[in-house]
Amino acid sequence: MIEINLVPDVKQELIRAQQLRATVISIATLVGIVSAGIVVVLSLYVFGAQTLRSTLADGAIKSEQEKISKVDGLGNALTIQAQLLKLSELGQDRQVNSRVFDLLSAIVPPAPNTIAISKTAVDTEKRTITIDAQADNGFAALEVFRKTIEATHLEYSEADAVRSVALATDISDSNRSYGEDASGKKVLRFTISFTYPDELFMRSTSNATIVGPDRKNATDSFEGVPESLFTSRAADSKAGNN
Question: Considering the chain, what is the average pLDDT of its residues?
Fold first, then answer.
């Protein structure tokens, strides 16, 4: 049997191209349908399932909130719990202001330049100590008192080492005037103030010791402060102030 191909080669190429185009179009259509299906599924999940889950979660939160709000005294319990959690932190930040008595005992010079303190004020915000005092020995006692404060240091332990810082900076005196004490004796009244280091009253300061020119007082272990260290403020001198 003899077969004769009457279709030219160009026609055959055209037929193959049409078949390839039809295949590509079919595949593209199928991919488009699948992609559209995926988009629809994702849309249903985002706008359907997610919305449903959010609604259920909000409902559960509201329900539990209503249950909690019905508990008697819950607000007070939570407040107390929050305060209890802060007790440790507050304890660490609390200052040991009682060390001021050891400080005063260390800085008062010996006779004949002893002074009597009528008032002491500690400003923890400005870190200053202000002392109202009076001296029998007049300006000489004031000068000795000031130099004693300048020469006094605070020693404490830190990381197995002994640290030392000046007890006072920015020392100044004011309100100098003469007055009469309870016995009628003429005394010099004055006010002296200075800035103290942070370590002086910090609870974390370990083994704190106030070291003066001629004495050493261990803070937190000093058993007492001499009563002679304090006195009532002298009255104005009858002869007038200088």
Answer: 77
